[in-house]
Fold:
Amino acid sequence: MKLFDNQNLKEYNTFGMEVYARQFLAMDAADETSDVIARFLHENPYYILGGGSNTLFTKNFDGTIVHPAFGGIERMEKKDGKVLLRVAAGEPWENLIQYCIRRQLYGIENLTAIPGLVGSAPVQNIGAYGVEVKDTVWKVEGFVISTGLPFSLSNAECRFGYRNSIFKQTLKNDCLITYVWFQLSENPHFTLSYQGLTKALQERELPLTLRNVSDCVRKIRDAKLPDPKIVGNGGSFFQNPIVPAEKHNELTKTYPDLVAYDAPDGQKKLSAGQLIEKAGWKGKQVGNAGTWKNQALVLVNYGGATPQEVLDVAETIIKDVKMMFDVTLEMEINRI
Ligand SMILES: Cc1cc2nc3c(=O)[nH]c(=O)nc-3n(C[C@H](O)[C@H](O)[C@H](O)COP(=O)(O)OP(=O)(O)OC[C@H]3O[C@@H](n4cnc5c(N)ncnc54)[C@H](O)[C@@H]3O)c2cc1C
Structure:
């Protein structure tokens, strides 16, 4: 492991916030975990940081940042046309996507180009274009920080939900994920429920292959989302709100074009991006922060924004959306 004092975190968060951590610990191997927990994480504020693409640092961090920097993809046993992969927490998510495309393993191609590391993927159950990572996670290995004991949780035990899991509930900030196991298919199958994706494939007259689906997803994303290397951002800033069916019915009387998807228990999931756009926020800039011109759900650092500027924009959006639709937006991003 490597330990640094007073580390600038600008390169470790996609919002590009220039904040400092009192201590920064980069782990080189999963088997350092017990030692790291015992020596650094007791009676000391800490935060486990992957690629920092779902984290908004709101101030300097007076504690230890633990960054699992160990990667690796191991192919484990094969069962009934399914292949198990054991992937280390520090492996960049995109490396796993490319590994699967090269080896013709189906299941996560719709999640192409989501920034971040593999260890973070189950935390908020990343999802895009009709697929969630829970559809392929076999189990998750790690350590409970408060006890120092190892755990291995099956898919069901991870209690995955929409942008949710046990790692955001009972194990929130109390676990260090070391490995994620994925179960992927060798038999071709695609998830094409997202209209924009099928349309893009048809328009380009591309045959249905893993590579083509992945390339199309990337093109759609590139057109909609800012590249964090150029414009700082943390992807979707808010979750899509889930409302009772009656509330949705009532809203469609005033807004007949309201986008809504079926959600559990007969509820409806609204598009946070559409609500924010209707509230007049698409592409709006206040000081150095604002929303992205092609996707109102993405808050951006237009250059030199302070955490407070980003939070002020977020709070005003929440207020405006509440006033217009009587719907409360919840932030998806982790604020530290
Ligand atoms: C441009 C852009 C597009 C995006 N698109 C999507 C999208 O389509 N779908 C989607 O779901 N998300 C999307 N995101 C959000 C983000 O990329 C994902 O949530 C990603 O999984 C975060 O990975 P990370 O390593 O950067 O996480 P971080 O921000 O470093 O951490 C996120 C959370 O996971 C915890 N964590 C990280 N590593 C570990 C570990 N090893 N053990 C325990 N806890 C850990 C952290 O403490 C924190 O709570 C996008 C973000 C950006 C910037």
About this structure: The chain has three domains: 2-68, 73-185, 232-335. The chain has seven helices and 20 strands. The pocket of flavin-adenine dinucleotide is lined by residues 14, 47-55, 68, 89, 114-117, 119-121, 123-124, 126-128, 167, 175-177, 225, 228, 233-235, 334 (CB under 6 Å). The helical segments are 33-40, 93-102, 195-203, 210-224, 245-254, 272-278, 307-325.
